[in-house]
Design brief:
This protein is an alpha/beta fold. Helix content is 39%, strand content 25%.
């Protein structure tokens, strides 16, 4: 029996971090301490969920000297959707020890230098940050990344093991709670894990603490479905391409193309769940639906004809943001706290920010054993404010038709992209942590949301009052614009 692992399990003070070859002894050693026919484990922090946010939080907590157990029921991850990152995310990966150059060199990512929006008629426009932003006083890194999420996940798993994080492939099924403070986590294998801190990174579908505490939430838009597969692409470019399927007047459906490797792209289709349900009722498989949508665009049609997908992944999601996601000794992060719509490109950024901020709160207040109310309020405001900001804007500008009909597809893309990009830039520069800074930052977000709401309501009012269908703004083919032009 390994003495260091035994002391870790029964809770005696040691330096947490068993080598990977000792982790296989964990379940046997757990049998040495039984309470009410349950194996009791003592640790400093439990992270529920071993995805991107959970692993990032576990690494940060372990770096801070805490003993960390990560609960992740899946023993392997397969064909995780490719990610197109916003321009703030690479620095967050660098903070975890993976620079942009490291990720690209290891074939876990490709560079992303622009976004291309393609209309249903074939016209397209590129959006990219202005080169002037790289100069003083801005000094902004205008490159970002496309991720192969499976490769990135494997890198983070290796880092977590190297920092001594122990992963149990079990589900959290119950909690011992007193005065809204979590005292223990019960798992599907009958273990009772007593910890001072609990972080919920269980994902949008589970969101175990959101449901446990019946936290209020706000949803934006209907439940949507994503279908995706990987395709060989000989002529890939260093940019994300979005293909818009719906004409003016209809709720938006769209396709993404994200080059996750040289010569391999993740291509997926997003639509309301009700729309996909109708297609399935007509006997179409997921592969039929994805292939049919891709054939509406010449480039994608050739890809699906050359290499029809043999396996199409599918998931459903609801863009929802919870309130009150930080308690006395527990914090909700990532999609469990706020599910971002994929078209925003903000999901990874939000997940890594939540993980960094949550672990910083735990490390800062671990001696107090409780997060102060002001710090909790500030975290709650940031998660709720940013989540509502992105989901509200994308729903009003892109998915709903009134503004898209008035401004045209490309005008709407620009109207959304500029405030979205600036919000992330301001967040990364200001890094609001205290309550006053958080209030000021969130007030700015609310102001932008109010302007977008007013524009949306006016567009609906004008459309309902007109007897003639509004002629969409003319979109010129092949346009290339900077997101920000100096005045």
């Amino acid at each position: 029996m390994d003495a260091s692992l035994y002391r870790a399990i029964v809770g005696l003070p040691i330096r947490w971090g068993a080598p990977p070859n000792q982790r296989g002894q964990l379940k046997q050693l757990m049998e040495d301490k039984k309470v009410d026919d349950k194996t009791e484990i003592q640790t400093d922090a439990v992270v529920i969920g071993g995805g991107l946010a959970g692993l990032a939080a576990a690494i940060d907590l372990a770096r801070g000297g805490l003993r960390v157990i990560c609960l992740e029921p899946r023993e392997s991850f397969q064909q995780i959707v490719g990610e197109s990152l916003d321009w703030s995310a690479p620095q967050l990966f660098a903070d975890l020890g993976s620079t942009m150059e490291d990720l690209v060199a290891s074939d876990a990512a490709t560079f992303k230098r622009h976004i291309t929006v393609t209309a249903s008629g074939g016209s397209q426009q590129e959006y990219l940050p202005g080169a002037w932003l790289t100069k003083r006083p801005w000094n902004v890194e205008i490159r970002t990344l496309h991720l192969d999420r499976l490769q990135v996940h494997n890198r983070l798993e290796q880092s977590a093991r190297a920092h001594g994080v122990i992963t149990l492939h079990e589900r959290a099924i119950g909690f011992e709670i007193r005065d809204r403070r979590i005292l223990a986590v019960e798992t599907s294998e009958g273990h009772c894990i007593r910890a001072s801190w609990v972080i919920d990174a269980s994902g949008a579908a589970a969101s175990v603490l959101g449901k446990e505490f019946s936290l209020p939430s706000v949803a934006y838009g209907p439940r949507k479905v994503a279908l995706w597969a990987h395709f060989p692409t000989a002529d890939w470019v260093e940019g994300t391409t979005l293909y818009m399927l719906s004409p003016a007047g209809e709720y938006m459906e769209w396709i993404w193309e994200i080059p996750i490797h040289a010569g391999i792209s993740s291509i997926g289709y997003i639509a309301p769940g009700s729309r996909v349900k109708i297609e399935r009722a007509h006997g179409l498989t997921n592969a039929d639906i994805l292939s049919g949508k891709m054939r509406k665009f010449a480039r994608l049609s050739s890809l699906v004809d050359d290499a029809p997908p043999d396996r199409v992944a599918v998931t459903s999601f609801l863009c929802r943001t919870y309130s009150g996601v930080c308690g006395p000794n527990w914090i909700i992060i990532g999609e469990a706290a706020s599910q971002s719509d994929p078209i925003t490109g903000n999901g990874v950024t939000a997940a890594l920010r939540h993980a960094a901020e949550a672990s910083a709160l735990v490390c800062k207040y671990q001696e107090r054993d409780r997060i102060p109310i002001l710090a909790r309020t500030a975290y709650n405001m940031r998660v709720s404010g940013v989540g509502r900001y992105f989901n509200s804007l994308i729903e009003k500008f892109f998915y709903q038709s009134p503004l898209r009909t008035r401004l045209g597809l490309f005008g709407t893309a620009r109207a959304y992209t500029v405030p979205a990009w600036l919000a992330n830039l301001l967040y990364s520069r200001v890094r609001p942590r205290r309550l006053i800074g958080t209030v000021l930052f969130c007030s700015a977000l609310v102001t932008v949301r109010a302007v977008a709401w007013a524009m949306f309501r006016l567009s609906r009012l004008f459309d309902s009052g007109s007897n003639k269908p509004h002629k969409p703004a003319v979109d010129r083919e092949g346009q290339r614009r900077a997101l920000h032009s100096p005045r």
